[in-house]
Amino acid sequence: MILVTGANRQLASLTLLELHAQGIATIGGTRKPGSSECLIDFDDPVSLDFTRIDTLVLTSAGYAEDDRVIARHAAVVSAAMRDGVTHIIYTSLVGAGDHLGFALAHRATEHLIRESDLEWTFLRNGLYAELFGGLMSWKDGALETPFGDGRIAAVARGDLAAAAATVASDPHAHAGRTYELTSPSIDATQVAEHLGVPLQLISLGEYRSRLLSDPGLLPLQPPMLASIATSIRHDFLSESQPDLTILLRSPLTDTVTVAASAAKSLRP
């Protein structure tokens, strides 16, 4: 049996759909389970029951400070070892993102898993194309971005879910492997051209100022988002690797279209 954590989040839910389509016995774990899911709450040790689970797909418990994220992941790894899980698949962060504001928790989790007695596979996911488009904004009909002419090897979330399902369907064939999952790089100009609108560049200082004044963001989010912006602007996330194409054995989703759709959905 395969269990996928974070079942109510987009990457996990898409992974579950991929596995169910293949007829593979899979269950989703989440804090608020429906009739076809089980209770898995990283903050409640009693809920971390992985008996009868052979393969655990651990999707990152982000949106918290590093100490809390790492503690959550450590609790999951400990429970997995206790309950006899054979293989753990962790959805990590692409290696080129080591300098990003949320990289430390990913690398610490990889270390925890390597030090365990579990068989493992790391899926180092590139940043979502949906996120790339979603971090742009609109002003007077123009698309605004702090990304300059920098490029990013962004990935469609659906392709990452398909890769996770591919590995989970035959985990032992991928034991001890670390995959760098990226797509061919794109830039903001391509997104604006796809939408047929002008592109307006803003400075990193202006972008940070807007983040800091946004009451809807958690305190940890402005520095994280600013680190993404400067990384893209200065081409630190532009390198593409072949691992995703090799795993899927099919053409990748057009990430310009995906990013443009995300940006368009925000247009006033």
UniProtKB/TrEMBL annotation:
It comes from the Bacteria. Pfam families: NAD_binding_10. InterPro entries: NAD(P)-bd_dom, NAD(P)-bd_dom_sf, NmrA-type_oxidoreductase. Residues 50-171 form the NAD(P)-binding domain. Coiled coil: none annotated. PANTHER family: NMRA-LIKE DOMAIN-CONTAINING PROTEIN, QUINONE OXIDOREDUCTASE 2. This is NAD(P)H-binding protein. It comes from Kocuria carniphila.
